[in-house]
């Protein structure tokens, strides 16, 4: 049950960004998201008497917050000004593919034949989604697709950076530090757009709240609970649930429609993800699923 709830919350983040980004703009929306989420988690940490200490690694946290939250979140919110929540959530499922590439380049991890095949399948899925998904071929749409993919690249880099510099860090501390650091990084860009708050409506405020508190803060807490209760292997399947729920929410609440190309792209990208994650598990990996699925 909790696994489905987590998939629904992380998949719902694409819906909330699609609703709020056109009004608040990507920078202000994402800064509100990470700051509210960070402080909500900080309050939780205080309540359970596990306050984090960032003094020794504050520089590393600033870099992590930028690469693993501020930049990719903003890119996705920018992309969703021109592509649907469904498409954005599907493209986000390429994160394991780029994590694999980053690990191969940075950590010199060997790419076996199965992994190479999974990469080509994922790339084919993206190509079909972009070229046969009825998205249009205007420069702004293609740029939005590129932004969504670059966000996944950032997650791949962020995952490797976390492995190198935060291997012994408590997960809750890591989540709080990443969100608050991302908020600081975004402040110079969000403050000039604060006037957009005048367009805030009840539905926009609800979207911001759900994005920050439910999709991010509560999502992280459920994620940590699942890691402890069912283990990282089963939790890894949330990677497949996020785009599925992203598509479901987009269809039910935003009236988005799926083309044959979109469905084909989704199937290929998810197949690529399954092959990558199964290869990792088969190799005895004990790494947990990336904390950024939204």
Automatic annotation (TrEMBL):
Cellular component, GO annotation = membrane
Q: Which SUPFAM superfamilies match?
A: Multidrug resistance efflux transporter EmrE (SSF103481)
**Where does it mainly reside?**
membrane
Q: Where would you find this protein in the cell?
A: Endomembrane system
Q: Which domain of life is it from?
A: Bacteria
Q: What is this protein called?
A: Membrane protein
Give the UniProt keywords, A-Z.
Answer: Membrane, Transmembrane, Transmembrane helix
Q: Does the record carry Transmembrane as a key word?
A: yes
Q: Which residues form the EamA domain?
A: 5-129, 143-277
How does this protein lie in the membrane?
Multi-pass membrane protein
Transmembrane feature ranges: 30-49, 61-79, 85-107, 116-134, 140-160, 172-191, 203-223, 235-252, 258-277
